[in-house]
């Protein structure tokens, strides 16, 4: 080995601290880089937000509590139902004659909501009340009473520590649209290219049908346009007031009472079923056409005969198929394009079809099973289902027949299209219904454009940062070795 010239040796001596300094600087830099990346991207402790929606239906009121992670509120599918409470008693429209009590009827469920939502979130939790067909009917009958009922519930809700956001009657169009948004949001159908699902809702006083139609929606009142998460949707919707299952029963009974006989043989009720009913209950409804003549007697006796075929022909009479001024109609002169795609059928569609065990039957099978069920003697039925309230039990034969007639004859779900209907109550733990869609819309949680997603998941981002930092360190060390030629660098030790 040749001796190094003296000058070179001196130069290398001052190199040592410089190299150490640079190396320390690089190491500190890398540590800072990695730490920043980790701290910056560390999953923050989840902060939840809450929302309350009261569904003031014709038959009853339900209170729903929703929850979502605050930082992800614009992502589809993040909001979920955490709690629901059924208000005891009937719907708010039944308080027309004692309006002061309407608000108080909500107390138990609202107190429960107070306990379910963390106290520190109360003041920022919005509360919405939406009333549907029962209140729409009361509004027609007696506007003052309907306003009084609404102000009674509004005043009561204002007394809670939540953020009161209004109590109003929603339109049938809104009810259909928000039901459609709910089922598709919960099914995560607004993602990219997934096709949407139609929504079928059967209440006590109205029923809604909503679906995406490729065919032009001829009537403007049935046409909705949405841009959600970057996609455009042309949606058909219609709400039939008076065609919920309770009002449909009244319409059917009123038709049958036209014979003038106080003894009504009704094929929609089980053989052996007998009940004294009030004429006023039937004809007092604003749904019962004034063109029908009202019997002079106060009560009539309903005798069940249990014949689903006859029941079906009675039920069909409440639909008017004779006039249509559009290209095609469902019934009562209402425009409807042919049904398209899959459908989710919820509320009473589910309660009834689930009870009758028809949720996965074909149309023909459903008709057959229903005939058998309706023909069962009432005593036998009562014995077999002693846990079910008589009010519901007595009406399943009628309700099942009505549902089949509405879907097949009303909306034209043929045997092959029948398979596209899924009877459901919940989707991933949240109830199907208009309430979630209503809240998502009012809190601006459904953006028109898709939110920017981070290009990498958190773990991937950190891994890449660490890998690149190490690579950078190795390169810099190598560079340092080349430049300063220290003996610590393996190859250089022998070269120099
Ligand atoms: O939409 P609107 O028309 O305002 O009415 P609603 O919201 O009160 O209607 P629901 O979906 O709550 O209920 C629809 C109907 O189903 C009935 N119902 C509820 N639970 C039921 C069950 O378990 N079995 C049978 N019927 C049921 C209820 O009495 C109504 O007649
Ligand atoms: Ca409803």
Automatic annotation (TrEMBL):
Q: Which GO terms describe its cellular component?
A: caveola
Q: Which UniProt keywords apply?
A: ATP-binding, Calcium, Disulfide bond, Glycoprotein, Hydrolase, Magnesium, Membrane, Nucleotide-binding, Transmembrane, Transmembrane helix
Q: Which domain of life is it from?
A: Eukaryota
Q: State the membrane topology.
A: Multi-pass membrane protein
Q: Alphabetically, which GO biological process terms does the record hold?
A: nucleoside diphosphate catabolic process
Residue ranges crossing the lipid bilayer per the database entry: 18-39, 461-484
Q: Where does this protein hold ATP?
A: 204-208
Q: Where is the active site?
A: 175 (proton acceptor)
Q: Which InterPro entries match?
A: GDA1_CD39_NTPase
| Name used for this protein in its record | Ectonucleoside triphosphate diphosphohydrolase 1
User: Subcellular location, in the record's words?
Assistant: Membrane, Caveola; Membrane
Gene3D superfamilies registered for this protein in UniProt:
3.30.420.40, Exopolyphosphatase. Domain 2
What are the leading ranks of the lineage? Eukaryota, Metazoa, Chordata, Craniata, Vertebrata
Assembly and interaction partners: Homodimer; disulfide-linked.
Q: Name one GO molecular function term.
A: GDP phosphatase activity
The UniProt record lists the EC number as 3.6.1.5
Q: What class of enzyme is it?
A: hydrolase
Query: Briefly, what is this protein's role?
Result: Catalyzes the hydrolysis of both di- and triphosphate nucleotides (NDPs and NTPs) and hydrolyze NTPs to nucleotide monophosphates (NMPs) in two distinct successive phosphate-releasing steps, with NDPs as intermediates and participates in the regulation of extracellular levels of nucleotides. By hydrolyzing proinflammatory ATP and platelet-activating ADP to AMP, it blocks platelet aggregation and supports blood flow.
Give the cofactors, semicolon-separated. Mg(2+); Ca(2+)
**Can you state which reaction this protein catalyses?**
GDP + H2O = GMP + phosphate + H(+); GTP + H2O = GDP + phosphate + H(+); ITP + H2O = IDP + phosphate + H(+); a ribonucleoside 5'-triphosphate + H2O = a ribonucleoside 5'-diphosphate + phosphate + H(+)
Name the family: Belongs to the GDA1/CD39 NTPase family.
């Amino acid at each position: 080995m040749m001796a190094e010239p003296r000058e070179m040796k001196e130069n290398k001596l001052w190199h040592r601290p410089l190299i150490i300094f640079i190396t320390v600087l690089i190491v500190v830099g890398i540590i800072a880089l990695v730490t920043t990346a980790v701290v910056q991207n560390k999953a923050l402790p989840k902060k939840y937000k809450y929302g309350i929606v009261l569904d003031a239906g014709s038959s009853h009121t339900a209170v729903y509590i929703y929850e979502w992670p605050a930082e992800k509120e614009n992502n589809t599918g993040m909001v979920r139902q955490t709690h629901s409470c059924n208000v005891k008693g009937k719907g708010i429209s039944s308080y027309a004659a004692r309006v002061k009590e309407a608000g108080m009827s909500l107390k138990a469920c609202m107190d429960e909501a107070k306990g379910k939502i963390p106290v520190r979130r109360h003041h920022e939790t919005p509360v919405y009340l939406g009333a549907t067909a029962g209140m729409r009917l009361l509004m027609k009958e007696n506007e003052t009473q309907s306003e009084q009922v609404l102000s009674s519930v509004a005043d009561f809700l204002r007394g809670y520590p939540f953020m009161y956001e209004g109590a109003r009657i929603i339109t049938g169009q809104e009810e259909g649209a928000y039901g459609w948004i709910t089922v598709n949001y919960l099914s995560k159908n607004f993602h990219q290219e997934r096709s949407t699902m139609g929504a079928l809702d059967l209440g006590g006083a109205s029923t809604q049908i909503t679906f995406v139609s490729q065919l032009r929606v001829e009537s403007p009142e049935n046409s909705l346009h949405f841009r959600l998460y970057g996609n455009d949707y042309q949606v058909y919707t219609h709400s039939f007031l008076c065609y919920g299952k309770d009002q449909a029963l009244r319409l059917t009974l009123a038709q049958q009472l036209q014979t003038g006989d106080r003894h009504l043989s009704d094929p929609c009720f089980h053989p052996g079923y007998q009940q004294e009913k009030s004429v006023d209950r039937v004809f007092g409804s604003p749904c019962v056409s004034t063109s029908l003549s009202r019997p002079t007697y106060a009560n009539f006796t309903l005798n069940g005969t249990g014949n689903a075929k006859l029941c079906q022909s009675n039920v069909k009479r409440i639909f008017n198929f004779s006039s249509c001024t559009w290209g095609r109609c469902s019934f009562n002169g209402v425009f409807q394009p042919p049904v398209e795609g899959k459908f989710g059928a919820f509320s009473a569609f589910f309660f009834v079809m689930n009870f009758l065990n028809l949720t996965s039957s074909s149309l023909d099978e459903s008709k057959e099973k229903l005939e058998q069920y309706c023909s069962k003697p009432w005593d036998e039925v009562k014995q077999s289902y002693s846990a079910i309230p008589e009010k519901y039990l007595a009406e399943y034969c009628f309700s099942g027949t009505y549902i089949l007639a509405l879907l097949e004859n009303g909306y034209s779900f043929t045997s092959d299209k029948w398979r596209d209907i899924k009877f459901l109550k919940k989707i991933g733990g949240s109830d199907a219904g208009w309430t979630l869609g209503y809240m998502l819309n009012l809190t601006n949680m459904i953006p028109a454009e898709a939110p920017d997603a981070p290009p990498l998941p958190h773990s991937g981002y950190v891994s890449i940062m660490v890998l690149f930092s190490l690579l950078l360190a190795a390169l810099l060390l190598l560079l340092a070795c080349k430049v300063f030629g220290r003996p610590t660098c393996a190859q250089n030790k022998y070269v120099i």
